[in-house]
Amino acid sequence: SRPGDHVIVLFGATGDLAKRKLLPGLFHLATAGLLPQRYRIVGTARSRGLSDAGFKQLAHAAVEEFGSTKPTGETWRAFEDALSFATTDHSDPSALVAAVQAAEKEIGGHPQRLFHLAIPPTGFGSTIEMLAASGLAEGARVIIEKPFGTDLASAKALNDTVHRVFDESRIFRIDHFLGKESVDNILAFRFANGLYEPVWNREHIEYMQIDVPETLTIEGRADFYEGTGAFRDMVVTHLLQVLGFVAMEPPTSLSATALRDEKQKVFDSLLPLDPKHVLRGQYDGYRTEPGVAPDSQTETFVALRANVENWRWAGVPFFLRTGKALRAGRQVVTIGFREPVLRMFSVDGCSTPSARRNEIVIDFADPGWISTRFLAKQPGPEMLLGEAEMTFRYADSSGAANALEAYERLILNAMQGDQSLFTTAAGVERLWEISAPLLEHQPPIEPYLPGSWGPSTVGQVTAPYRWHLPEDC
Ligand code: BG6
């Protein structure tokens, strides 16, 4: 349903995220009739003063290049009318205050203020303080981008700063993986079906994998990436959140509190990461990318084994992998089931004697698919088995046209005040806490070739199991 009237203030309005995702996403929400009846979007940035007209032009170009709907017609004109721009000056926020007040006056009534901090993490604290000092924070909600801190101490300090100004119910820490249709569908798949949940435990499942290889390199983001690395950029942020959904107990309801409480229990049960089970890699050529130190120790690849020590999962390894410049760009959860107690069949396939285990594969790269892999008799006079699969593809489902991109979904939810798909203070702190042993004792970097699946030792992380990817043998 449509949220109530809003003034959205977009910090970092001239930045990459705003251009690629946020402005096109807001416009798509407008075309889908999901923006409020009355709204204004005030763009703001520190370094680049733009006029209102300049910002409208920038938004037009961004939607043209990255949007799913073209910026034309009546909807575009209405959207464009709602845009204005103010330069942020932390020592004198009067221009921003004036722009927000003007937007509120145009709308009339009491629109909700929503600040979206699409800025580098180093700017979060000072921006929040400016919002408090200028009075803008009053009654407002705030969306904060990632990464939220770089370790436990910095995440706590940032939470303290934010909590001095906003209470938790008004804070929306974004992890855009949680806004992906097929990540959200993990909840439906598990808890709306009688078929899977009864076997979703250590009795039947032998391993879990969350694998997010990327073909992209760092795409000129050395400034951000050198101090961040694959572990902070992807694992603490996205992959462990997905793990939370895969591993959680059935929540008592779909309320934000119930869902987030169950996710927190998973995080509380995660054992601190053991550096012995972590492989860090760096692709050949990374050190010569512009802005990267010639002796950089930043990892562009990480593969690790995590353990959730609770009644459901004790002893089941969770393998996580992600990296830049790898062979394929995929986002895949694989659930590996135990083999039957007796092996009666011979299998014609990749790895003998039993080929792959039964696996449920959830591909969550939008639009995503889910597949069940099993063994079936091959046609012919012999009892020979081969691998078979049944697949559901999101793109084939009747509502596919209604799909929202992750950011769109999350901005909509923030406007609706629904925190279900946002992370909590306790959650991010716990994830930094279990990361501490690794951050303190980083295993040495191993090189890998661009276009490979990581360092040559990547198979050791999962042994005696194999990575689901690549899918061929
Ligand atoms: C971002 C990371 O949060 O997620 C990037 O900073 C990564 O390094 C990206 O490429 C992947 O997200 P998506 O939306 O492309 O699946």
From TrEMBL:
Binding residues annotated for substrate, in chain numbering: 176, 180, 214, 233, 324
Cited InterPro entries: G6P_DH, G6P_DH_AS, G6P_DH_C, G6P_DH_NAD-bd, NAD(P)-bd_dom_sf
Pathway as given in its UniProt record: Carbohydrate degradation; pentose phosphate pathway; D-ribulose 5-phosphate from D-glucose 6-phosphate (oxidative stage): step 1/3
Keyword NADP: yes
Highest rank taxon of the organism: Bacteria
Positions bound to NADP(+): 12-19, 46, 146
Ranges for domain Glucose-6-phosphate dehydrogenase C-terminal: 187-463
Keyword annotations: Carbohydrate metabolism, Glucose metabolism, NADP, Oxidoreductase
Catalytic reaction list: D-glucose 6-phosphate + NADP(+) = 6-phospho-D-glucono-1,5-lactone + NADPH + H(+)
Keyword set includes Oxidoreductase: yes
Record-linked SUPFAM superfamilies: Glyceraldehyde-3-phosphate dehydrogenase-like, C-terminal domain, NAD(P)-binding Rossmann-fold domains
Active site (record annotation): 238 (proton acceptor)
EC number(s) per entry: 1.1.1.49
Pfam families given in the database record: G6PD_C, G6PD_N
Recorded family membership: Belongs to the glucose-6-phosphate dehydrogenase family.
Summary of the function given for this chain in its UniProt record: Catalyzes the oxidation of glucose 6-phosphate to 6-phosphogluconolactone.
Protein name: Glucose-6-phosphate 1-dehydrogenase
Organism: Kribbella orskensis
Gene this protein is translated from: zwf
